[in-house]
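job 3f2a | input accepted
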Amino acid sequence: MVDHILKLTVIDAGRSKRYAEIGHVTYPLKDLEIGDGSEQQLFKMDLEK
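job 3f2a | predicted structure (49 res):
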């Protein structure tokens, strides 16, 4: 999985029936440190447009 990338897209699903993409963030899974799952991990990243 070293060549895989996780992409999360943030959308605005306001009153209109169309979704507006606000931005996205990508995270290479090779940088992910997998623990034993006993504690949460917090990632803070800027959105890309």
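job 3f2a | The mean pLDDT is 84.
job 3f2a | closed
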